[in-house]
Amino acid sequence: MHIKKYDFDYSRRLFLERAAKGIVGAGVLAPLWPTIAKSGDATTAYPEELRSISAYTKGKLKPGDVLTADNVDIVKDLLDPIAYRQVKEMGRRITLVETTSDVTKLFPHEYLEATLKNKGKAKLDGSGNTFNADGKPWIGGNPFPEPKDGVEAFANLTLSWGRHDQSFYAVRDWDISPGGTTSYQYDFCWAEQNTTCLVNNPDGPYWAGHEDKLRYQSVFFIGPNDVKGTSFVNTWYYDQAKFPDLFGYLPAFKRERRFPTNQRFEPLVPGITIFLSDAWAAGDPMLTWGNYKVIGSKPHLGSVSQNWMGDDPNWERKVHGGPKGETFFDTYMELIPEVMVVEAEPVGYPRSPVGKKRVWIDVRNMMFVAYVTYDRRGEIWKSFEPGFSQYKTASNVVMDGKNPGWSWTHVHSHDIQSNRMSRFVQAKSITGGYNSSWNQGSLYDKFLTIQAVRRLGA
């Protein structure tokens, strides 16, 4: 009798064996990143069952099918627990699409090039900070495309959130009550400016004079009028054990103030479920969290392609589900051949209401595709589920330099304990004439200083 080495369950057995031995790897038939570097096609590192939802489900589901309460149990193991409950109990629908084979569609172009060029040059020092081989701050791209542990995996998330040197997101948010109606609607802007790890800077990977920092980041609310002018600015240090400087401007008090570090675990404005800590599943310096643990690897469903609504005038999305048909965005998910599942605890925040977080990271681009937090009792609390896409459709494209753009498109932020949902999109434009963009010149003086926050608030 001939036993096939790569039978249908080979991948599952391999993932279980790696988990039992504490081995962290990427790829099944071949190591992932050498395969990507050679062909740009990640799928050849995996057998058919991990690159085809039809093969994985043995024909029960295929691209174009829609997950509903009637069929979601077929792929329960491919969803985080809150996403599963949303489909099973709350009327959410998820459309399945083909698995992306071309890795260039999962990155901004320059960031992928930097990842390939700089592979193998990153090192962790004794404290866990990431440095280039010459001892200077990291020089751009994913520092650890083949991470050996959870700390290296989180370095990929933390050092460049949006994978652009700078980003300006015009965000439109809807906050859905437990009864299914829109209780709040906000327009706000989110700005990010990296100072190190740069990939588009003609003067190299560092912004001169700011090498001790990692990024400046701000968020300011444009509407409605009762929160207009509410603004926050974060200054992140390159040392990931240092807490950011967090200042805010509250229009009711007509002044800016410094906020304590535990303000990172509170809603930004009434009704919203988003915390600063939630950003990119790595909203706090990574060494203020600890006990990083890779708990396994597995296939997963994630919104990583075909999610840009570029044919809508403002890139907005249709909604469905929940008690009033308003709770969820229409979303598209593909079978990701392999995710790394990492847990961490907020060791630097003794008063944090979060007990731990669990993050599912697509090993093809080392970006998170699902994120769930647990409270101090160990009960599941919130999910922060992103959608990503190349900004290109059959009839429209947004260019990032000479190449189609890539970025996040939408987020579901669901507090499952209160059953409040914040869902928001990266819109083309919002109130006040603010437009989304990447790498369009320095944001610092306009949006990323205390003076700018005061000006925006006024």
UniProtKB/TrEMBL annotation:
It comes from the Bacteria. This is DUF1329 domain-containing protein.
